[in-house]
Request: fold
Amino acid sequence: MYYTTGFRRDEIQDLAALVHEQDQRNATGLRRPWPPILGLFWSVVITLAYLRGNRVQWELAETYGVSQSTVSRAIAGVTPLLAQALRSVVRPTAEELRADRQYIIDGTLLPCWSWTAIPGLWSGKHRTTGVVVQVAATLEGQLSWISDPTPGSRHDLHCLDQSGALDHLATYPPIGDKGYIGRGMLTPFKKQPGRELLDWQKTFNKSLNRTRATIERVIAHIKSWKVLHTDYRRPYATFKTTISAVIGLIFYALT
Reply:
């Protein structure tokens, strides 16, 4: 079960308990949002398997011996509850970044299908559609924060400014790539037209880029949740909630 969901059975049971508690808090007098034929536990299992591998619903239906519509109802019912429950339990906010620590920050694109009604999803940098999140990690490679998503057409600087993260990191400026020049962060020197970098600037850039490799490994780990790495196929209106659920699960696994 771990290799398809990312969690052991006892951890899934704990997640199911969180989902049940969140459903109780959201109680509207209606029936439970997960399919009765599956029950809560297996609805959570199927949802985790979908998020972990971005698996096609027909494949999940065949694996777990139910219909595709049952799988769809399980994912649609459990994902928002996971997002709500884990946001309040484990997901850190920008305000919780420590002013006495130095972080490395980078942005990454979470790809999705191209919805013609939403042209702002197109990223010229990545040459595909999706949304952008900002990721902060310590120098030791510990994931510390992931921002809310913004449309893929927006520059990393805009996304970082919108998050407010830099407001809490004035003492130790975070490290970033050249895309963050102008925000008081530690960034590589940019080569000016017609001029070469000095030797000490080249040495500085090499050292900084070696340090920045840490954030690339952190982002690669985040994208081991394939729903954040390969095109998102469900309706775009559900994408933000799905991202929030996965981010919560990532931090939950770290606790």
Residues 10 and 46 are 15 Å apart (CA to CA). The chain has eight helices and five strands.
